[in-house]
Amino acid sequence: MMLKKWPLLFMLGIIMLASVGWNSGVSHASYYFEYTWEKYKGTEVRTYKLTPVPGRAGQMDQEKFFAAISKTPNVYGGFTGYRTGKTTGVATKSVTDGVYKYSVIDSASNQEPEVVEYINPTSGVPHKWNGTEDIRVFMRGSEAASLAELFYEGTPTEERYHFNAKDVYLVTFRSSTVKPISEMSAEALVEEGTPTFINRELVGQIKGKDPAAYPANGILNGYFYIYKGSEIKVN
Q: Which end of the chain is more exposed for a tag (fewer CB within 10 A), N or C?
C-alpha cells in the first residue's frame, strides 16, 4: 500500500520544494518604480496684477525727498524707474538664471514706458527725471517701508501703508513745481494666471524614486520639468 502511494508523495514533495523555492526567491527580490523627467532651462515669465496698497499717500518736503531717494536702492540695485502717467495695472516679472526683471505697460502708448534715472533729478537733461512727472519704481518692501517712514511723520500708524519686507511693490512718486512737496503711493503685485516658460533649452533627464520630487509639467527652482513616465526596476 505504501509502495503504491510513494509516487504520489514523491510528486507532492517536488511540488512543495518548487513552491518553497519560488516563494523564497520572490521574498528576496524588491521592486520599485523609477520616474523620469526632462529638465529644461530658460526664461520664466510671471504676470501680476497691480493692486493699490490700503492707506493714505504720504507727503514730505521735496528737497528732503530728493536726498532720501538718491540713497534708496530698488530691485535693480541702481536708481532707475519708469516715467509714466498711467499703466494698465499689470506687471510682468521675468526670471532667467536667477535674474529678475519687472516691467509695466503704459496704457497711453500700449508699450513699456520710458526708463529714467531718478538720482539727483535735473530738469531738461535727457534720461534724468525732471521731478514733476510721475515716476514708478519697483522696490522691495523693506526699502519701501524705510522710505515711507520719512513721508509719514505725524501720520497715525493705522493710516500708513504697510509693506511686507520680502515682497516687491510698484511705488509711485509725484512732485510739483507749484508746491515744494513730494508724494508717495504704492501698489502691491498680486500674481494671476500660471507661470510660463519660454526660450527652453534641454539640460538633460532626471530620474528618481519619488513621483512628487519634480512637477509633472511645471517650474521648480528656475527649471522647467516635463514628466516622461515610469518603469519598474529590481534592486
A: N
